[in-house]
Amino acid sequence: MPRYLTDKDIADFRAELCRVATERFARYGYDGVTMRQLAEALGCSPKTPYRYFRDKADILSTVRAQAFARFAETLEAAGASATSPIDRMRRVGGAYMRFAAEHPHAYRIMFEIDQPIDGSNADLARESDRAHRLITRQSEELAGAGLIDVDPELFGWSLWAASHGVVMLQKAGMLQHGPDQRALAEFLGMTMMRGAAKVKK
Predict the structure, then answer these.
(1) C-alpha span between 188 and 159 (Å, rounded)
(2) Which of 62, 110, 132, 192 has a 20 to 30 A CA-CA distance from 30?
(3) Residue 195: which region, alpha, beta or left (left: phi > 0; alpha: psi -120 to 50)?
(4) C-alpha 199: how far from its chain's center?
């Protein structure tokens, strides 16, 4: 007679499956991972993962949503104690760099996996938008304080692009003999701030 699974059993298995899937997707990409491989890594039958997720795409969407949620929580916590819009920008920027360094698998599946972020997975769409809105909100605060004179949404996206570029240079080993990545990211941010303060709409 099969053992009855409690809610905790189900939650624990899903969490472990997501942990293994995050690592595998980050290392091998979406096409390099199969449901059978995930089952083998978990020591269960090939059909077991299908009891918890529809398919491989569903697992990827779920782990990406979880990664974006942790990412947004990290940035929100960093900016919560800021004393000014510029201080918030610096704190959030520093947290961005730390998250990328400390959670490389999560960072990769957020930004290096080719999977559309659309309405097909509500959790993924919500959590990725949460991260975007946080960065845009910072720019709106800078504009509201008269510190930048450009479109705040474009400025927020530009800050994000600059931060991501620094992370990717670091991951590629290009900063090994260059500046510290956090120092470079802050330099870019402050240089963009000075430029945006002088531009007239």
Answers:
(1) 8
(2) 132
(3) alpha
(4) 30
Tokens of 54: 């529809």
pLDDT tens digits, 167-198:
999 999 998 888 888 889 989 999 999 999 87
Q: Report d(CA 124, CA 82) in Å as an integer.
A: 28
Give CA 159 to chain center in angstroms: 15
CB atoms inside a 10 Å sphere around CB 105: 17
Single pTM value for the model: 0.87
Cβ-contact 125, 118 below 8 angstroms: yes
Amino acid letter, 71: F
**Rounded-to-integer distance, Cα 30 and Cα 11, Å:** 23
Give the C-alpha separation, 22 to 184, whole Å.
Answer: 29
What is the rounded CA–CA span in Å between residue 194 and residue 44? 56
Q: Is 157 exposed, middle or buried (0-12, 13-18, 19+ CB in 10 A)?
A: middle
Domains of the chain: 57-198 (1.10.357.10)
Compute the distance between CA of residue 201 and CA of residue 91 in angstroms, rounded to an integer: 28
Write out the two tokens for 143.
């504009």
How does pLDDT run across 115-145, given as a tens digit for each residue? Answer: 878 777 889 989 999 988 887 888 999 999 9
CA atoms of 92 and 79, how far apart (whole Å): 6
